[in-house]
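Reopening closed ticket. The problem is back. First fold of the pair:
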Amino acid sequence: MSTSAKLSPIGETYNTKYYRGPEDIIVVMPQAELKDDADSARVNMQFQIAYAESVGRPCGVVVVISRLVGQDAEARKIYSDAMDPKLFFATALVVGNALSRAIASFFMGLSRPRNSTRIVESVEAGIEWLETQRPEVRA
């Protein structure tokens, strides 16, 4: 991934690594072949919420869905419910194959995310789109 030079590690959970992209963008990199379930979703949302709160303004999130091999309904609900627009202004879901496209489509269609969400083909495309979604910061 050519963006990796611009990404700084910010932490990890037992199955996901997190990076800071430009400004207030979080890049979520699940471990390869992860089967995402409710326990995984809770741990990962706790991390993302804590990070967004530490930034002090809403963050954009790029999730590399193409690393998943499955995601159950409870995990989708946890992510959807926890994506509070006060903490997360938008989410980009990176897909790279038919399975990840199906997982992303299920998330968007069945879970009805609380913030603007788009399927993209790369981390770079996700960051570019998120930069157009960022709310104006008032001093």
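Second fold of the pair, where the issue appears:
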Amino acid sequence: MSGGEIDWLWAIPLALGGVIGSLIGAHFSLGQNAATWVFWVLVLVLGLEVIQLCIKFL
């Protein structure tokens, strides 16, 4: 859309997804095993990125 109009059909689900994702992230980051969760999510994301780069460039 142009002219500064907001497409509410897309904006509302995106906003709700951001709020829900933030609440879930806050819940996990304040838990007892937060450091363990963060470490393993980081390992997973980095591992997937390495696999993707290997597939793309090999």
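Update: turned out to be a display glitch only; the data is intact. Residues 8-57 form one domain. DSSP finds two helices and no strands in the chain. Please close again.
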